[in-house]
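Thread: "does anyone have the structure for this chain?"

Original post by V.I.:
We have the sequence but no experimental structure in hand. Need at least a predicted one for the grant figures.
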Amino acid sequence: MTSHRVLFDMHLAQFRGEDPGDTNSIVVDRWGTLIDLVTAAAETRTLPRPTRVGLSCTLYFLTDVDNCTVTVTGDYDHAGNSSLVFTDVGDWAQFVSFYDGTNYHWRMTGSGGVDETVLAARYSPLLLALDNKGTIVVPLGSITEEDGTALTIFGASSATPGFSQESDKELVLRWHNHANPDGVAFTVPIPLDLDATADITIHWLADMSGATDTPVILHEVYFGKGDTDAAGTDDEVDGGATITEYTATTLAANVQAAPDTLTVVFQPTDGELGTDDMRVYAVWVEYTKKVVAV
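Reply from O.Q.:
Generated one for you, tokens below.
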């Protein structure tokens, strides 16, 4: 038989198999089997293990009276998933058979529409590992007094913080060791990719001018207009003169989705700057990005 004849015979071959009906097993007895799934109600099918390598099978949802759940014996991916739900006409899934030295397995090679929640779960761990953290950088120059008044150069003995260039030319936001230090604030837009079902965390990079005081960073958090304080637990600046990262987490239950704004008010707690000044080198907010379904 010539190669031309083989290809011609394959062209004429019937690849469509029979839908076995509710609760029954799909038979794959040829390469390239296509099964048109037809439901009369919510139904199930089973795709048994293949019997040899190199088989291929495509399931296509032809008639949708209700969903069709297909259980793939063993699994269809390395994550161990074995169930697929066909919900709309045109949903499809394609498989090819492999042998792992012990058992034959189906492996999904493509799909459309079918069970997107499960499929997203297969890939989301990879997406999360690659890039699921977002950062809102808050420039020190964008921070104002709580009432919106612009901050100026640091002045010793003042309750109002100001900008100070330290000995190594670093620019910081500095509070004098005043008994009642003023609060400051910033407002940023909520990023469009922020996942409002996850916590957000405010970060301060700060130190003290000495090793005596350990003030708590008293903070407030507000979303949008007319919100109540959603701040989490205040952190204590206890690293002395060592520049240290301090954090405060706002729980997901209080986080709002875009479009909206986030306003944060913060200051050293009253009565806790008795000897040393507090210096803030950087402020930023970390959030979890939405994972797009695949």
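V.I.: this helps a lot. The mean pLDDT is 89.
O.Q.: and Residues 203 and 247 are 5 Å apart (CA to CA).
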